[in-house]
Amino acid sequence: MFTYNPFSDLALLVPAIAMQVFVIAMILLVVASTVLDMVHKKNVIYFFRNAKKAKKSAKKELSTGTKTAVILKTVAHDIATTSELGMGKRRIAHVLGMYGTILFWISSVILIFNYSDGSTAPSYLALMWHVGALMTCLGGYWFWFFLRVDVSAEAHPWYRIITADLFVLALLSCATFGLAWSYTQFSNNIGLSYLFLILYIVSNLILFGGVYWSKFAHMFYKPGAAIQKNLAEADGSRDNLPPPADAPEQFGLGIKREQPKHY
Ligand code: HEM
C-alpha cells in the first residue's frame, strides 16, 4: 500500500490534465493570497523600512561573502531546524510536520505531472507521498492535541477551535483524507474511496484557498525575518535593540519552581 500511486488509478476517473490544472490553481492561490496579505497588512513595507532604519546604526559594513555566509547559516540552522522553537517537543513536532508536508507536496507534484498518464511511478515516490502524509499527521496531531499554547498553557480543551487553527486543521485534513483515500482506493472500497477523495479535494481547497486568513504564509515570513535578524546581529545594528546586559542572569530561585509555560 505504501508504494501504491493513488494518482495513477485516479487518472482512470479524472483526466491527468485536470489534476495538473488543479495543482497550478493551488500554487496561484498561494501566490495571490500571500501578495494580498502583504498589501493588506503592509508587513513587508514595515519589514524593509525597519531594516533600512536599522542599517543606519550598523557598526560595520558586511561584505557580500559575509552576508552569504550569514544567510547560508540561517538557512541551515534557523530555518531547516526551526531553531526558534528551542530544544524540545515543540521543535520536534514542527520539524516532523514541516518535512512531512514538504515530502507530501513535492511527491504529489511529481506523481501528478509525471506519473498520472499510465506510466509506472518508481516505488520510492509513492513511498515519499505516504511517509510525508504520515509525518505531517504525527507532528500535526501531536501539536494539536498536546502542544498548542491555548491547550498546553491556557487549559482550553483540545476541541476548542478558533480561526487561528484554520492552517493546522486544513493541513491535517489534507494528510489524513489523502491517506484514507489512498488506502480505500488501494483496497477497492470504491464508495469510501470516492468519499475520501472529495474530502481530500475540499481540504486542499480550504488549505490553499484560506491562505489569506490562515497562518500559511508564516512559512515565507519566518525565514525572511530570521535572515534579517541574523544580518542585523552580524552588522551590529541589532534591529536598534540594546545589547544583552553584561551581567549574570540572576532571576532568583523562584524561576526554578516550574517550567515557563504561561505565555
Ligand atoms: C512547509 C513548511 C512549514 C509547515 C508545513 C509548517 C507548519 C506549521 C504548523 C502546522 C504550525 C502550527 C500553527 C498553529 O499555531 O496553529 C506551525 C507553527 C510554527 N511554525 Fe511552521 N511550518 C513550516 C515552515 C516554518 C518555517 C520555515 C519556520 C521558521 C523558520 C516556522 C516556524 C514556526 C513557528 C515558530 C511556529 C509556532 C509554533 C508553536 O506555537 O509551537 N515554520 N508551523
The structural class is mainly alpha
Number of strands: 0
Average pLDDT: 92
The whole-angstrom Rg is 22 Å
How many helix segments?
Answer: 10
Biggest beta-sheet profile: none
Q: Ranges with pLDDT <50 over ≥5 residues?
A: none
Strand proportion, as a percent range, falls in: under 5%
Intertermini distance: 43 Å
Order of helices and strands: HHHHHHHHHH
Q: What characteristic shape results from the CA principal axes?
A: globular
Attached small molecules: protoporphyrin IX containing FE
Helical amount = 55-70%
Q: What number of structural domains do the residues give? A: 1
Structural write-up:
The protein is mainly α and 263 residues long. 66% of the residues lie in helices and 0% in strands. It has one domain (6-234). The protein is globular, with a radius of gyration of 22 Å. The two termini are 43 Å apart. The relative contact order is 0.15. Protoporphyrin IX containing FE (HEM) is lined by residues 78-79, 82, 84-85, 90, 94, 97-98, 101-102, 140, 143, 147, 149, 164-165, 167-168, 171, 215, 218-219, 222-223, 226.
Task: Please outline what is shown here.
With 263 residues, this protein is an all-alpha fold.
Keywords:
globular, binds protoporphyrin IX containing FE, 0% strand, 263 residues, mainly alpha
What's the arrangement of secondary structure elements?
Elements: H1 6-10, H2 16-41, H3 43-56, H4 64-79, H5 89-114, H6 123-147, H7 149-152, H8 166-186, H9 190-209, H10 218-234
The protein binds protoporphyrin IX containing FE (HEM).
